[in-house]
Design a protein that fits this description.
2 copies of one chain form a homodimer. With 340 residues, chain A is α/β, with parallel strands linked by helices. In chain A, 45% of the residues lie in helices and 16% in strands. Chain A has 3 domains: 44 residues, lambda repressor-like DNA-binding domains (434 Repressor (Amino-terminal Domain), Orthogonal Bundle), CATH 1.10.260; 114 residues, Rossmann fold; 132 residues, Rossmann fold, CATH 3.40.50. Chain A is built from 13 helices and 12 strands. In chain A, strands 2-1-3-4-5-11 form a 6-stranded parallel sheet, with helices on both faces. The first copy, chain A, has a 6-stranded mixed sheet with strand order 7-6-8-9-10-12, sandwiched between helices. Chain A is elongated and about 90 Å long. The termini of chain A are far apart. The relative contact order of chain A is 0.13. β2 of chain A pairs antiparallel with β2 of chain B, so a sheet runs across the interface. The structure holds a DNA duplex (16 and 16 nucleotides).
Chain lengths: 340, 340
DNA sequence: TTGAAAGCGTTACCAC
DNA sequence: GTGGTAACGCTTTCAA
């Protein structure tokens, strides 16, 4: 393994000078710089990142904490992060989170500059204790798709998204609109589903429509679960004419159940999802599009900026635009509801 | 930042002893061990991984080189890798590859123990020069979904998969079976598509069926491209009665084109894909299932084993089983072909 | 503009 | 069993 000392010897200079060349310090004469570069070339020298990191107190690594398995949308966001980091000099370390223990473990261990120079936390609202530790750790943090006091965040206006979806169905003439989303007390504390539900409830209320208890269902974020929950809803004698699902994954489960129940979408049932993941365009799903890839990129860029500026970002909040994408799973209700 | 020296001072022992406790060396008395552990607890000490890595010559990190953007299947494989590494003590560094330059850069830079203790390379056949460098670098490597002389690999029998798909269509009575796959000269050298094509051609030949030139189409691995290529095929007056696509992504493009052309699947056209990614079950796609998640896990476990054994794996090849999953996009051809 | 040398926080070897 | 002390390979200050 060729070290900086080898290069120094080969070039006939001191190790310090080689280091200066490596970190292109201006205070090196052109001639020595050339000599050093030549030696580096000849010896095929590459600096040891560990040694460099130990010496400088940082490790050229960005940690990305992500519930990699739970949400389909996380992958698309991660792609955006990867894209942004591609051109940077930082390596990306992936920390998967499936349980709160998992999460807190990462949060504690990662708040040190020798672990990661910056942290990007996806969809996970840090619990207060972790948040304090994170905020005061000196390691720049960006929250993506969650919020925390004192920490910058790239967020989606999920409440507004819920309104958008619901209003769309109302505009089509629906009055019995159901909602299907995550369990409110999901272990990792994902909040997007309940925010979307809030937008839904609010919009229903302003339209003077009551939400029947049986028209709101919750379950783990899995297609099969959404399918089963929907089956129950559709089995009732007077079923809703439209369902707003808190995510595309769940909306696909809804569609599956509708198909299984012999219903034609959108004639017998309208369905709206949320996210616009890749499958959705194929499935012809009407959905609230949020720029997943872009949000990942934006968050990563934010982190890079704060790293470059060597100063923490404030509590700034960056919000990306939502857009209703109308495809072929929504239409006016075929029959006027019994209440009419 | 609390260091090993602080712990040593607090416990009234030498730094070496603390280190021994950390790496649970047997040669520490129970009493001192307890004292040291207490000090660690009180001071909330965590070893600096950089320093540890520098000293020991490895960094507790595994590099995963993956064409993250190009193939949907890569994500599912990556999930398997993440799952396997979750319980290990290794961090996962993600290296995205989109171009050959990208790829070679990673291959050169990652063949050092101070970068990664092991390397998992997904779907990328290393060029000979890189391969030599990799094989002799001393860094354990596992290839996933590609092969290389002297390097262990977890692979899929793509040729057999191609046979499976084609035979299924033949068994249903099809004779005009088309193939749609990646460009043979794709820049990163993915080989799965052409292997699947080989299985297809071989099976057609043994069945005594000629493959018409226009019945084999190639293009970049993108759904929209597959759709357009299919449109061209279906526009011809005597079109094939079945299409075998080299991946589910491409098969979805085929389905889209069929729908756009007003054809009913499987009545007017049978479609078989490859991979069985998550979407496929939703789309009801008949496909050749390969255990993507499982392959990722297997490859990662292999790497961990070789790391634990501190000896390089041989050129062993690990092959996972394929399985034809018949869903609703294949059926007997409606009309007997013109040749009949 | 440059070299020498002192860290950075561990581990591992060598005495005791 | 345990403490002292070289490494590990780099950056950075201090002198010159």
């Amino acid at each position: 393994m060729v070290t900086i000392a080898d290069v120094a010897a080969h070039a006939g200079v001191g190790a310090g000078t080689v280091s200066r060349v490596l970190n292109d310090s201006p205070q090196v004469s052109e001639s020595t710089r050339a000599r050093v570069l030549a030696a580096i070339e000849v010896l095929d020298y590459r600096p040891n990142p560990l040694a460099r990191g130990l010496s400088r107190g940082r490790c050229q690594t960005l940690g990305v904490v992500v519930p990699f398995f739970t949400h389909a949308s996380a992958v698309e966001r991660l792609r955006g992060v990867v894209a942004a980091l591609d051109k940077s000099l930082y390596d990306l370390v992936l920390f998967n989170v499936e349980s709160p223990v998992h999460r807190d473990e990462h949060f504690t261990t990662l708040t040190r500059r020798d672990r990661a120079d910056g942290l990007l936390i996806m969809s996970l609202p840090p619990p207060p204790a972790s948040l304090h530790r994170l905020a005061t750790s000196g390691v720049p943090i960006v929250l993506l798709d969650s919020r925390g006091a004192g920490v910058p965040a790239v967020v989606t206006d999920d409440v507004e998204g819920g309104r958008l979806a619901t209003r769309h169905l109302l505009d089509l003439g629906h009055e019995r609109i159901a909602f299907l989303g995550d369990e409110p007390g999901n272990p990792l504390g994902f909040t997007s589903s309940s925010a979307r539900e809030a937008g839904y409830r609010e919009t229903m209320e302003s339209a003077g429509l009551a939400v029947r208890p049986g028209d709101v269902r919750h379950g783990p974020h899995v297609r099969a679960v959404a399918r089963d929950l929907t089956r129950a809803m559709l089995a009732a004698p007077d079923r809703p004419t439209a369902i707003f699902a808190a995510s595309d994954t769940q909306a696909l489960g809804v569609l599956e159940a509708a198909r299984a129940a012999g219903l034609t979408v959108p004639r017998d049932l309208s369905v709206v999802g949320f996210d616009d993941v890749e499958v959705s365009s194929y499935a012809g799903l009407t959905t609230v599009r949020q720029p997943l890839f872009e949000s990942g990129r934006r968050a990563a860029e934010l982190l890079l900026e704060s790293l470059a500026a060597e100063e923490p970002l404030g509590e700034a909040e960056y919000q990306l635009d939502l857009e209703l994408v109308v495809r072929s799973t929504t239409a006016a209700p075929a029959t006027t509801p019994a209440a009419g």
